[in-house]
Inverse folding.
């Protein structure tokens, strides 16, 4: 299947304008390399990796694919300087930054010949990212899994709002797990899409099989954005989620919520498979994911759906 080149495929040197989200505990070298080998852009999720672990994943990804891949770096990371040095020294050419000011690292990376993309959840931060001279923006709507924007702007509103204000390439994220949704996002002004939850439920994803099964069995309404006092996060509803709701009902303070959250909740749930006490981060679109597939098949299926949908709308 072929597709006409566009701003995203040309920017990254890939076949399809699909980016795999660099999700914590899910996006290791097996997933990133499989997605890149399928013609999309694979990302390593540095947010759940110590520096030396990231270095190992980059090396293994380079051995597993000769196609472009990148690294997603949450800038709140405590070892951010070490992470950036490893990225540069390892020859990574694409970096997605999030959870911080894009001005902090963009010039450092671009001076090293690295393509920089920044993740935003509002027009305000999209403009700040463009001002920082990033190469592209990911606009992530309220539907997305994991840590999210506070404004609760949906993808369908966010994409055209940002498209109206910026002139650099735009990637849509949040609620996209099919070719139909990809086409819709591009009609709204996106040049490509970033897909997280659909790849979380892939054979190559490094999340625990019990978490993958939980995603597949999720229904519409089974996720909720919570913990806004700390950092908004969309979770599947489980015992830990119910504990959060009880804490709110009992008038929990921010300090109480920090204590309840504790440490390594996401690792416990997503990586170790504790479906009761773990933090299970996933998007609303999990209700539309019904099977665990190889990454190559996910990309192939999305592109087939995209082309089918594009042909169908010509008749409207």
């Amino acid at each position: 299947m072929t597709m006409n080149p566009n701003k995203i495929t040309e920017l990254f040197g890939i076949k399809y304008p699909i980016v795999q989200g660099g999700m914590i505990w899910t996006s290791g070298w097996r997933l990133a390399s499989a997605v890149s080998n399928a013609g999309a852009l694979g990302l390593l999720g540095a947010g759940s990796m110590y520096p030396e672990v990231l270095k190992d994943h980059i090396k293994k990804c380079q051995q597993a694919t000769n196609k472009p891949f990148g690294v997603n770096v949450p800038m709140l990371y405590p070892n951010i300087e070490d992470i950036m040095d490893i990225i540069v020294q390892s020859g990574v050419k694409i970096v997605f930054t999030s959870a911080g000011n894009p001005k902090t690292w963009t010039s450092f990376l671009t001076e090293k010949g690295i393509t920089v993309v920044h993740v935003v959840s509002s027009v305000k931060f999209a403009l700040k990212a463009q001002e920082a001279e990033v190469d592209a923006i990911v606009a992530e709507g309220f539907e997305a899994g994991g840590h999210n924007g506070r404004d609760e702007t949906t993808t369908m509103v966010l994409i055209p709002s940002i498209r109206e204000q910026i002139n650099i390439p735009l990637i849509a994220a949040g609620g996209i797990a099919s070719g139909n949704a990809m086409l819709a996002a591009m009609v709204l002004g996106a040049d490509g899409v970033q897909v997280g939850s659909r790849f979380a439920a892939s054979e190559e994803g490094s999340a625990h099989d019990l978490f993958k099964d939980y995603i597949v069995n999720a229904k519409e309404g089974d996720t909720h954005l919570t913990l806004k006092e700390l950092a908004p996060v969309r979770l599947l509803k489980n015992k830990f989620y119910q504990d959060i709701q009880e804490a709110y009902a009992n008038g929990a303070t921010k300090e109480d919520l920090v204590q309840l959250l504790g440490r390594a909740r996401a690792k416990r749930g997503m990586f170790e498979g504790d479906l009761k006490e773990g933090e299970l981060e996933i998007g609303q679109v999990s209700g539309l994911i019904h099977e665990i597939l190889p990454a190559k098949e996910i990309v192939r299926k999305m592109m087939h759906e995209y082309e089918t949908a594009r042909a169908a709308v010509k008749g409207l």
Observations:
- The first helix runs from residue 7 to 12.
- DSSP finds 14 helices and eleven strands in the chain.
- The chain has a mean pLDDT of 95.
